[in-house]
Write a structure and sequence with these properties.
This protein is of the alpha+beta class and about 650 residues long. It is about 45% helix and about 25% strand. The longest helix is centred in the last third of the chain and has 51 residues, at about 495-545.
Length: about 650
């Protein structure tokens, strides 16, 4: 090579945009360019004569060393991390090329290319593809991709399989036209309608239609389908998104029937029903009004409904209706007295609901239940209530008395607060209405036992149902009492829900702790197993290295391959993956939260933090990672420095244990 060519070659080496380095046969640096020095954040004097392997990721050093020494005249690429104590590790691609021998020894030219951004883009692209794939697969709406040439299903999500009752494999063998009726609801044949839809889609439209199809069980489904097209693997396809509207269609079909049934229900209902406008004018009444109050429909229709109210109740009901309008409430209820045609006083319970009259007017539907008998009974029960009122009203526990008709005669404020019912509403309720269905049989046995005087009192634990539906655990003590009219059962109720919850929580905590202890033991056992395995392999590798100088020929090469296999096994990433799987069962989200709190930590340092949290010794971590104990201590020092634990006496393990 001429001097001119040598000068050009040196100029290209120095000014190459990628890092370049020349190594001797011991892989020590002979020459290095500025691009690589910048990456390492070192000067040339510091690097020259140093083993190049010390600048690559520790777990790759031995593997890289042997692969380079095995080179003859070929070129090979190697991905690894490049860095130094003064620079972060950078993911790079190394291209190693053996050059002419110098003084009988080979030299190596290595080109270093930063591939961090490339890997990041590849990762982002994969994440994006996974994202859209996940949306397709997990969508609650049925999505299917069809071939427009033969209407066969190319791909369908789980919602489509669930909707039609077929497996994914079965769907790919089914033509949707074959499981559709011959004609659709509009009278068009399914085949012709499908062809028309394909034409619409390929003309740029996105039709939305109703379509009928049979599921695997032979049931006819009504679907609402939106159709579009796109290109898949270079060919046009049709995508359909379907919603099951079968129930909605069935409901529409029954609507007319329901209207007729409502008319019959209105006129034949045993309860009195008034339809009135917002001013109280009667629009319609049913036959029960004639039976209960003696008025014919012409006597009431077109007149104000207050005409049948007791004079003392009119102001109160006006106030309630005004409040109902002001609050824009949909319904309300109250009790009042009505005056029958012959002057008889009739107590009723009214339930008023907002409705829309057929002519579009806002109106009210008023349902009236004759409660005269109940009101009369309430007066009789008043004597019983007066006798026990003082005790009931001031007792800390819930109290109630059940009469011989198995209904609540009286209940105290504490019971009302416990169950969420107003006291007036509790009165006359059947005890079964507040008792959890699974406890009703046992409660009935208790009442029968008391009534038959088989026992004078008893204590049980059971469950009541709160008005809003949740269960209340109680301890009930019941006994027979004498009333003015007959015998009744008085029950004292103590809320033990919190007590039950505390016992259950203690039980769950015990189970959880037991499971956690078991998983901790599994994780420790797994880690110690890998560490012991690595110690054995490392010892075996050391012995092979000691024997190698005394061997030659084929035996030496076989022993070298065996040593490389051992080293690859020591660096096997599955050890970390297995450890991570066990570790995250015991410490869920620990590494995520640690990375969020200290984003400056590298993946390698996060691994060390996991081992520290496990309280693994330096010796065990070194065996697990196949590095020296000194390297473990250096890694821990760097972690402390990065997260601000400057003092050598501050505890890194305590800090890591505090992260939940």
């Amino acid at each position: 090579m001429s001097v001119r060519e040598q000068q050009i070659e040196a100029l290209l080496f120095e000014n190459h945009p990628m890092g370049m380095v020349l190594l001797d046969d011991n892989l020590k640096v002979i020459k290095i360019n500025d691009a690589l020095l910048k990456l390492l954040d070192l000067d040339e004097c510091t690097v020259l004569g140093q083993p190049f392997c010390q600048f690559i990721t520790s777990e790759d050093q031995t593997d890289f060393y042997h692969k380079v020494l095995d080179l003859t005249d070929q070129i090979f690429d190697y991905e690894t991390g490049i860095g130094s104590d003064s620079s972060p590790t950078t993911l790079t691609s190394l291209t190693v090329k053996p050059l002419q021998e110098r003084d009988g020894h080979p030299i190596f030219l290595i080109t270093v290319r930063d591939i961090t951004l490339q890997r990041q883009k590849e990762s982002n692209l994969k994440a994006t593809l996974n994202h859209w794939t996940q949306i397709f697969r997990d969508s609650p709406m049925s999505i299917a991709i069809l071939d427009p040439m033969n209407f066969s299903i190319v791909e369908a999500n789980e919602s489509t399989a669930a909707l039609l009752g077929y497996s994914q494999d079965e769907l790919l063998r089914i033509n949707p036209i074959e499981i559709s009726p011959d004609t659709q609801p509009d009278g068009t044949s399914s085949v012709n309608k499908a062809l028309d839809l394909v034409q619409q889609v390929f003309s740029g439209k996105k039709p939305s239609i109703e379509w009928q199809i049979f599921n695997k069980q032979g049931e006819l489904l009504d679907l609402e389908i939106c159709i579009d097209r796109f290109t898949l693997k270079g060919r046009p396809v049709i995508v359909t998104m379907a919603s099951d509207i079968t129930l909605r269609k069935r409901q529409a079909e029954h609507l007319k029937e329901s209207e007729e049934r409502f008319r019959k229900l209105f006129h034949n209902n045993p309860l009195m029903i008034f339809a009135i406008d917002i001013n109280g004018t009667v629009l319609s009444v049913n036959h029960a009004v004639k039976v209960e109050l003696g008025y014919d429909p012409p006597d009431l229709i077109g007149k104000n409904v207050e005409g049948v109210f007791h004079i003392e109740d009119k102001p109160r009901i006006r106030e309630k209706i005004q409040a109902l309008k002001k609050e824009n409430a949909s319904h309300s209820e109250w009790e009042l007295r009505k005056v029958a045609r012959e002057g008889e006083i009739v107590w009723v319970k009214e339930i008023l609901r907002n409705i829309e009259w057929p002519d579009g007017r806002h109106a009210y539907l008023v349902t009236c239940e004759n409660i005269t008998a109940r009101k009369t009974a309430e007066l009789a029960r008043q004597k019983v209530e007066d006798r026990y009122r003082s005790v009931f009203d001031n007792h800390l526990f819930g109290l109630m008395v059940i009469g011989d008709n198995e209904r609540i005669v009286i209940a105290n404020p504490a019971l009302s607060l416990l169950l969420g019912y107003p006291q007036a509403e509790l009165v006359n309720m059947h005890w079964r209405e507040i008792t959890y269905i699974e406890d009703q049989e046992e409660s009935l046995k208790l009442i029968i036992s008391l009534v038959r005087k088989e026992t004078s009192s008893t204590l049980i634990e059971k469950r009541y149902v709160h008005r809003d539906g949740h269960l209340i655990h109680v301890r009930c003590k019941a006994r027979i009492i004498d009333t003015a009219e007959s015998q009744a059962v008085m029950i004292m109720i103590q809320d033990i829900t919190d007590e039950k919850a505390l016992l259950e929580r203690d039980k769950q905590l015990t189970q959880t702790q037991s499971q956690l202890d078991h998983k901790n033991r599994e994780l420790t056992s797994y880690t110690m197993h890998i560490a012991e395995k690595n110690r054995f392999l490392a010892q075996l590798s050391q012995e092979l290295q000691e024997i190698l100088p005394a061997t030659s020929g084929g035996i030496r090469r076989r022993m070298q391959r065996l040593e490389r296999n051992i080293l690859q096994q020591l660096k096997n990433e599955s050890n970390w993956k297995g450890f991570l799987a066990h570790f995250e069962e015991v410490n869920p989200h620990f590494l995520d939260r640690l990375s969020e709190t200290y984003p400056q930590l590298t993946q390698k340092e996060l691994k060390h933090c996991a081992y520290i949290r496990m309280r693994l010794s330096v010796k065990d971590v070194a065996a697990f990672l196949h590095i020296s104990p000194k390297a473990v201590e250096v890694a821990r020092y760097r972690i402390k420095k990065k997260i601000g634990l400057e003092s050598r006496y501050e505890k890194l393990d305590q800090l890591l244990e505090s992260i939940k």
